């Protein structure tokens, strides 16, 4: 059935590729339905949100390092909440909350998955565009709208949402509990509801495109791992995002229409509320049913991207392609049945804690397989250290260091004492925050030539990489210690009572690394922007890669290929494959065989 | 509004620049340029940096353990805490071993196989045996950890009434803790936020006879060596009762009663004599003395020397003063505890005042 399907669309698109319709400025750059343009829109919006998210983290890191110093930057950026250079405790919580929200959803979900799913799915599977370009456009503009609303919420009089990115009620439901739970939280919920709609439209489109629009010969087992990762990510998104939507909807009802889904027996601001019978634990279940898969929504695309980049730059096939696909599938499946490990001490039945410990630690197995396979891919390779490759290796490093501490947090007995401490903050920033950011950077460096037709400056890329890796470990490695010292997260200051006074020095170290690391991102931004305009012209296939996107011309055109869509004859990892005699590569003098090259005489196809 | 106008102008400006760039791009007939692709020189240099990074990584690791270990929590002051610490130690040892080996392989391979013109990579796509080995090793190790962890967890969380635990209610509200001892009958009286009025700050049901001998306090005293069962309530938002020294934590949830039990094993007095605690207190006091010099110079009041006490901290974001929602815990001998409790007012005395 599916062969028929893509034959039909291929025919349909074949004539489409030839005729050129006039694009106006608006249809080309703004309401574009071309996946390459939409991907750039996602990237630029994501980077813009990223700048805001990271800047916020610097502000609250300064507060943590030097709680009794006054800084005029607070006054500049926070206005009345930073009066006389003293940060207001409520705005501290707001910064933490919005930093988390922006980084998790707007940068690492939309910015990473949105950018590269859009760019690569049609190009790597050999399709003219997404299954529905129009839905794709709507998806981006809903994302844009939700970004705008999220940013607007920063300017609300009582302040933006401040109940933590997990917005647990009753704190997030009651404006009496904190000022941020008023209009700020309403806007947060509206923004997220729109974001979820955007994400669903995008995900459905990705799934349909991968299933139906693969070119002739592109069987599922010949798909590059990037596509596998995006495909499975989209499925997790479709399964779990609606649950967050239901939680948000119920929270909206509790806040505005007097229902009691999450509220019961509350006495606040001198009066008893009428709410009876609800449970905040229900919200936690609903939230983490998305919340945990969400971290895989963030990290899987990054892992897909690095699989591709590491193979290409090692000039070797990715080791254990089938195992990599199986790991992605296993991680995706397990990701939906582990959410309770965020709730070991929430008051839920301890027996459930045992079950979730079991499923959670199982996830370590496919993750370990992935890490070992990456390392083996490097073994006996001919490594080309382009900036994208460096960031990919960096990702493997942080994925391992951050993932290992997950063994502690996933173990319910051990979680009791490190739950909600800085140990958790260190863990998830390394394993999903920093790793996914490295994936984003790797992707940008690698596919920049495809997106903008120019090369990024490699030396600036090297500077960016080395300062960032050292800085990121400099921030998050010491953080494990203050977590194990028992310091709870989301404390405005650690000096209100003397017990944590001796952590002050470590906090200063962390903040200094954070400032340096944030500053070096400016090098990236400069490199990114200036390369768009003045970068060296890109060759068609700068990294000598096998995947189909490098068979398209450098100059973008609607429909991707000027002529017929290429057919595929092999998987995408035929790097350094030798001919039958074993004296030269399959194609003499060329260590890679693009997917659209038919099998050579006497060549055997790998059976995977 | 002006902010949005400014933003709009900026966005339009950016779009204009982008457009202009497109025009330039179209007008240029450029030729390809490979200068931004890694060459042998880059590969060599970056490969060596990988080794240097590995050295940095290990040195930083050792420095961290050397320099920052003294901030860590002292030995567990509860019976089950020892099991948690033991499990933690084993898990940490495994983690560090895996970390050191994998990071070495990753960075060493990166260095060893750095690209050179003419070097041929090995076409090595699959090896079932290898993959089997590194699937089965994590399976075995994790199975061990899971079983060990689950036994520990079940021991901690299953509280039997047969142990005759001392029952204490922990009551959380923005931004303080209160405690209620179950009194002579060791049964907590009914309570609900709807009974909150005047001195009855935790909503005890005055019509429940079990409640009359309950004792509400602002400080948490625990007798050493006896199992304590905490019943937890919150009156407004989620809080979390975190007692790091006892390796104990449980959220307090409005609308339901949560619980956690442990047996304190070291009194506050004994803990103050623990060498690790002495060192930590000395460090903190050294820092406070430094600050006192500054304060004195400004003519302000100086800080008192710090003395160690167990703490109950709020560990779930609960509002503006979340960072300072704490209560002192005092672990003492049964006699001291009894004497202290006898001085406290029962609910009956409080309500009928």
UniProtKB/TrEMBL annotation, chain A:
Keywords: Electron transport, Heme, Iron, Membrane, Metal-binding, Respiratory chain, Transmembrane, Transmembrane helix, Transport. It is a multi-pass membrane protein. Residues 25-552 form the Cytochrome oxidase subunit I profile domain. GO terms for cellular component: membrane. The keyword DNA damage does not apply. SUPFAM superfamilies: Cytochrome c oxidase subunit I-like. One of its GO terms (biological process) is aerobic respiration. Belongs to the heme-copper respiratory oxidase family. This is Cytochrome-c oxidase. The gene is ctaD.
UniProtKB/TrEMBL annotation, chain B:
It is a multi-pass membrane protein. Residues 163-343 form the Cytochrome oxidase subunit II copper A binding domain. It comes from the Bacteria. GO terms for cellular component: plasma membrane. It is found in: Cell membrane; Membrane. Residues 65-160 form the Cytochrome oxidase subunit II transmembrane region profile domain. InterPro entries: CcO_II (IPR045187), CcO_II-like_C (IPR002429), Cupredoxin (IPR008972), Cyt_c_oxidase_su2_TM_dom (IPR011759), Cyt_c_oxidase_su2_TM_sf (IPR036257). One of its GO terms (biological process) is ATP synthesis coupled electron transport. Binds a copper A center. Its main location: membrane. It catalyses: 4 Fe(II)-[cytochrome c] + O2 + 8 H(+)(in) = 4 Fe(III)-[cytochrome c] + 2 H2O + 4 H(+)(out). It is an enzyme of class 7 (translocase). Its EC number is 7.1.1.9. Its cofactor is Cu cation. Pfam families: COX2 (PF00116), COX2_TM (PF02790). Keywords: Copper, Electron transport, Membrane, Metal-binding, Respiratory chain, Translocase, Transmembrane, Transmembrane helix, Transport. The chain crosses the membrane at residues 6-24, 45-66, 86-111, 132-151. One of its GO terms (molecular function) is copper ion binding. Subunits I and II form the functional core of the enzyme complex. Electrons originating in cytochrome c are transferred via heme a and Cu(A) to the binuclear center formed by heme a3 and Cu(B). PANTHER family: CYTOCHROME C OXIDASE SUBUNIT 2, CYTOCHROME C OXIDASE, SUBUNIT II. Belongs to the cytochrome c oxidase subunit 2 family. This is Cytochrome c oxidase subunit 2. The lineage of its organism: Bacteria, Pseudomonadati, Bacteroidota, Flavobacteriia, Flavobacteriales. The gene is ctaC.
